[in-house]
User: Fold this.
Amino acid sequence: MILVTGGAGFIGSNFVLDWLATRDEPVLNLDKLTYAGNLENLQGLEGDGRHVFVQGDIGDTELMDHLLASHRPRAVLNFAAESHVDRSIRGPEAFFQTNVQGTLRLLQSVREYWSRLEGPQRQGFRFLQVSTDEVYGSLAPDEPAFSELHRIEPNSPYSASKAASDHLVRAWHHTYGLPVLTTHCSNNYGPFHFPEKLIPLMIVNALGGKPLPLYGDGRQVRDWLYVKDHCSAICRVLEAGRVGDTYNIGGWNEKPNVEIVEVICDLLDELRPRSDGVSYRSQIAFVSDRPGHDRRYAIDARKIEKELGWRPAESFETGIRKTVRWYLSNAGWVSRVQSGAYREWMQAQYAAPAAAETLRQ
Ligand code: NAD
Ligand code: DAU
Assistant:
């Protein structure tokens, strides 16, 4: 079996669902169930003996040692993290607790477990660290996309914590020989995306008749990848990646935020038009910028394509249509995640007096 951490979050739950849809190998799913973890994402696996869920913290050494010894996974995939940049700006500590201290403890447990394996089990074992393109910092408009050799230059507390954990993973390979793989992916979107992130927030706010808050001038660029393509890339790296290597994963899909939001509005105009006939674009509002906002991310995904033969299956046009349809068909999921804690976050983040909103007509 494989051990997946953070498998009740956005990408982790998509990964577990896709894994078990195409393979019989069981999954041990360890997740702390923070505000971002949601067992409802995994409802489709109820009664499926191939999925074992344990609520717990990657930093709980006793628990991790016990799980590793009793389930004897052939690989550990570390998705668990605090993942939202805006939250890291308001409260960095949790990010260092989980992303750095948690990863450190997890690595120690895994090293201990791996060092006792023998023969093919020891040789075949892998630790895969799910990381982000944000560790590379920000690109100027004319700079080439991030390759695996790009300098590590994180700018937010979130990306600094992810870079720190990636360095730990690298060091555990170089110092102790732990067989690690690291992936750096661009912005994901798709089903089960928590509506604090750009794409689901815009869909949910649009349908709720609320403003669509674009930070600054809305011209920041991200490189978008449909989540299931990220999952297939991780499977490919786990299967065939070179031990100790890093792999960039991206969709060759650079777009400014304002364009993303306009596409969402146009899809909603087509699929669920407003009763007054006015376009959802009228809800776009420019608000004050994110402090230290990275201007542009772009992934050069040639290495994974050339060495491992991976390419995304979805274009942005097909992926975003599927995503908007998913949110329209899953209003119950959306309303259940919009709990009291979610409302408190929205209030803190978007009702700040400095936000000086200008509604675009
Ligand atoms: P998410 O916030 O939706 O999910 C994170 C999950 O980790 C949640 O289920 C949460 O309960 C769990 N978790 C948090 N702290 C934990 C702890 N201490 N122990 C155990 N579980 C814990 O995040 P996501 O968007 O699914 O991202 C998953 C991973 O992929 C993260 O490592 C993130 O840095 C990376 N990543 C995300 C993106 C993206 O666009 N979302 C892109 C590239 C890389
Ligand atoms: O690049 C990969 C990263 O993508 C992951 O490592 C992170 O876990 C993930 O959260 C994401 O980080 P971003 O900061 O790029 O994603 P977010 O959805 O928060 O924002 C995307 C862009 O949209 C960014 O330029 C900020 C902008 N934005 C975001 C929100 C929430 C707005 O303009 N308004 C908003 O309300």
Summary: The two ends are 54 Å apart (CA to CA).
